[in-house]
Every structure is written in C-alpha cells, then in structure tokens.
Amino acid sequence: MNKQLDELHLSLRHKNQEVVLPIRLQAYERICLLLERISPNHIIPRLNEKDLSAKQLQGALVSEIRSEFSHNLSQQVYISEEAWIYVTGAIEQLISLINESANELDDSATSLDLAKMVFEKNMRNQQDTLRGALSFIKNEIKELF
Predict the structure, then answer these.
(1) Which candidate, 108, 96, 94, places its Cα nearest to that of 38?
(2) Can you list the alpha helix ranges (DSSP code H) found in 38-110?
(3) Does the CA dihedral 75-77-79-81 come out positive or negative?
(4) Angle (nearest 5°) at CA 30 between 143 and 40
(5) pTM: predicted TM-score of the whole model, two decimal places
(6) Which of 1, 34, 79, 104 is the most buried (most CB within 10 A)?
C-alpha cells in the first residue's frame, strides 16, 4: 500500500511538473521582456519625442516603467523570491537614476538633454542592476533544466 501511495505521489508530482514548468518558463520570459523593455536603450527611443521637455520625458519614463511593472506583478508567483528582489531592485534603481538625472537639469532642459544624461549615468554606473537581474533570471532558468 505504501508503495502504491509513493507511486501515486510520484505520478502527481510528474503531472504537476508538466503543467507548472511551462507556466514558470512563461513567467521568466515575461520578466526578461519587462527588463529589456524598460532598459534605457529601449524605453527612451520609444517614448522620446522632440518637443518634450526633460520633465515631461521624466514623467513619461517613470509612468511607463511603473505601468510595465504593474502589468507583470503576478509573475512573482512563479519565480523565486530572490529573483523577484533582483527585479524590483533593478526597477527602483532605474527610476532613481531617471529622477536624479532630471533633478540635475534646469527647467529649460529638453528631452534630449535628459536622454543624454540618463545614458551617461547608466554607462558610468558600476552596478547595472537591470543587467544583473536579467543575468540572475537567466541563470535561474538554466537550473530548471
């Protein structure tokens, strides 16, 4: 009877893995996409318009990042807590970088001025938390196989 119970548990675990693994992989994929979409190299060209002021671009960037993040909040259920901490930390660091850059510019600065400042700060940044989070996620995916 114990042997049959063990076999049943093993069978259920295997069937559960067949269902859960694709969902987890999809969650990791969506988190990778989130991190790529909000990276300065992708988000600034997507949102920057020539007639925007630096403050307007700042608002648009922060709003878009928060929107992308809230759209993917449910993915935290399927990834490790440590991975989620990396993701949230990277997002907060990016928002902070954008806000710091905007605060260093005067009120007459253009969106191009802000874009340049964000790119420069991001390149000088010793710890690119977006890349770090993406790397952590990719390594976690490798552990699944």
Answers:
(1) 94
(2) 40-47, 54-71, 81-103
(3) positive
(4) 110
(5) 0.85
(6) 34
Q: Look at the chain and count its residues.
A: 145
Look at residue 65 and give its three-state secondary structure.
helix
When pLDDT is cut at 50, 70 and 90, the band that residue 127 belongs to is confident
Whether 115 and 20 have beta carbons less than 8 Å apart is answered as no
Residue 14 has pLDDT above 90, yes or no: no
> What is the rounded distance in angstroms from the CA atom of residue 86 to the CA atom of residue 73?
14
Q: How far apart are CA 101 and CA 62, in angstroms?
A: 12
Query: What's the total number of domains in the chain?
Result: 1
Per residue in 114-126, pLDDT (tens digit) is: 999 999 999 888 7
